[in-house]
Sequence to fold (263 residues):
Amino acid sequence: MSKTIINQKLDCITGEIMKRIKTGINGLDELIEGGFPAGRSTLISGGCGTGKTIFCMQYIYQGAKKYNEPGVYVTLDERPDLIREDVLRFGWDIKKLEDQEKIQIVDGSIAKLGLPSEEEYALPVTGYDVDKLLLEVMRVIKRIGAARVTIDSIPALGFNFENENDVRKAILKLSYMLMRSGVTSVMTSEIREGENRFGKYSVEEYVVDGVLVLHYMGVGTQSNRTMHIRKMRATKHSEDLHPMQITEKGIKISNIEEEYSEA
Ligand SMILES: Nc1ncnc2c1ncn2[C@@H]1O[C@H](COP(=O)(O)OP(=O)(O)OP(=O)(O)O)[C@@H](O)[C@H]1O
Ligand SMILES: [Mg+2]
Fold:
């Protein structure tokens, strides 16, 4: 029997705590027992402008920069050049880490419109389909030895499908492939505030291991950002609604008590 299998069996017997992947989001790890469960996937759910894209880029950027874990960012909504430019505001130089092959962006945003992309890793214009996307993502994961992957966003994956069952099948396939490749993944999905579901196709939230919900709501004359953890399998997580801020360093999550003590 190999040493790894013996170690895995010993871990089961001794009940060794699951390995955690640091999220790179200030204030989040301590709410989820140290980070995302390694090798699993988490869905970031929220309405427009709630910070889903910034969250994903922070996870990938900090992963590469701070924890030396290469990451692949799959963008199906926004153009890569715009994302790179936007996150420079937080001091995140994505291009530099791409040059060092610690981050790679796969562009599926333009191909879905039938237009050619100028990116190094992109889908061919001819025939945008999920299998081609998956092949490209797997190829890039292998090439840079990625430990982290984000898919932004799942609804954009369903762009060219005629019926929702096909989208659901595609989502299942995607999550299965990501799990098989051993990466810790983050996906995004869009929901309207107050909706009683967490993914657009009502399947995303079940295939993932964790769901974080981002809110952006008007309270009195002000707008407030908050986050709550809807589920995180194998984790004793916070059940509170947490204040969230987008600062000059990116997303920061805090506790109600901290928020009041700072005021
Ligand atoms: N430098 C910044 N400082 C503070 N807030 C910012 C900054 N940049 C962006 N934001 C806020 O973040 C929002 C955009 O966040 P992001 O693009 O991550 O949202 P999203 O949930 O991905 O939206 P969409 O559903 O449109 O894709 C902006 O509308 C703005 O409110
Ligand atoms: Mg976005």
